[in-house]
Structure formats: structure tokens, C-alpha cells
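FORM 7B: Structural annotation worksheet

SECTION A. Query
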Amino acid sequence: MPTYAPQMNPWLILCFSIALEVCGTVCLKLSHGMSRPLPALGVILFYLSAFALMSISLKSIEIGTVYAIWAAAGTALIAIIGIVFFGESFPWGKIVGLVFVIVGVVLLKASSSGH
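SECTION B. Predicted structure
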């Protein structure tokens, strides 16, 4: 009797990878130059997990698309987190840049030949 092994959507896996990368970057900020042990451990664990999931998504999605979306979405999310939670500035140029990043990610997803 054949067994059924459902596969997760590679785009969803990529989203989880991006979320883990963002968590790792927040931990990097909180680690104060890797001098605080708990956030430093978070950096290592979150980044390792993020890369592991990204490698799984690469089985089904083109490498250029995966990395561009991973990097752009992570950058946009970190910029927003920096503004909201760390009190970083948000001049109009940064806002326009974030809009361009988001539009670019949408265009990459729409034009991808992956699943």
C-alpha cells in the first residue's frame, strides 16, 4: 500500500525562512555585538534554521527568485521593525524605497516559473 507524504508549499517554506531570518537579525541587534549570550544564541539558531528552510525551497523555486525575495522581504521587514520597535528614522526616501522593494518582490513572485 503506497503511503501519502504531503509536501509543504515551497513558497510557504520560503516565508518561514524569511521570518526566521528576520528573527535572527532582531537578535543580532539585541545581542549588542554578540556580547549577550541569549540573543547571540538566537542569532545562530534562527539563521541556521532560515538557511535550512531556504535550501528546501530551492528544490522547487529558481535560485535567483528565492534569494531576491528572501533578501528583499527580509530587508523590508527589518526596516519596518527598526522604525516601529527601535525608533529608527523614516524619511520619505526610506518609505519610497520600501514600497519599491515590496513591488519588486511581488513582480518576482508573479514572474517566477517555479511552483
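SECTION C. Observations
The mean pLDDT is 91. Helices lie at 10-30, 37-57, 63-85, 92-111.

SECTION D. Sign-off
Analyst initials: ____
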